Amino acid sequence: MDFKRLFDEAGCIGSLHAVRLSDGTDISHDADRPHVLASVVKVPIGLEFYAQADVGRLDPTENVTLGPEHRTPGPVGISQFDDSVTMSLRDLSY
Q1: Which of 53, 57, 68, 71 is least surrounded by Cβ atoms within 10 Å, i.e. has the fewest?
Q2: Average predicted confidence (pLDDT) for the chain
Q3: Which of 39, 40, 59 is CA-nearest to residue 49?
Q4: Distance separating the N- and C-terminal Cα atoms of the chain
């Protein structure tokens, strides 16, 4: 498959790398190009969170409290709150 052509036709720049877990066969396009993770980083973090919960290494219903000093700045979610927030790890992962 000509992924460069597909990205060009879509008017964007892209890369990909997929591996078939059953036999290790892979396919890629420009897979070694560095990328800014931005929101994409949430996917592997979420997967690891639920993997840890599944084997009992953490309790997703455990409550944590985040004060304003422990939050990153940003335009959405709890970043906008002025006061401390208490929520479960599961809700925080969402």
Answers
A1: 57
A2: 91
A3: 59
A4: 35
Q: Identify which of 15, 13, 56 has the alpha carbon closest to the alpha carbon of residue 32.
A: 15
Q: What is the pLDDT of residues 63-91, one digit of tens each?
A: 999 998 888 888 888 888 999 999 999 99
Residue 37 has pLDDT above 80, yes or no: no
Sign of CA dihedral 24, 43, 34, 8: positive
Q: Do the strands 16-19 and 26-29 form a parallel or antiparallel pair, or are they unpaired?
A: antiparallel
Question: Which residue type occupies 19?
Answer: V
Q: Is the overall model pTM greater than 0.70, yes or no?
A: no
φ/ψ (deg, to 5) at 10: -80, -10
Q: Are 86 and 67 spatial neighbours (Cβ–Cβ below 8 Å)? A: no
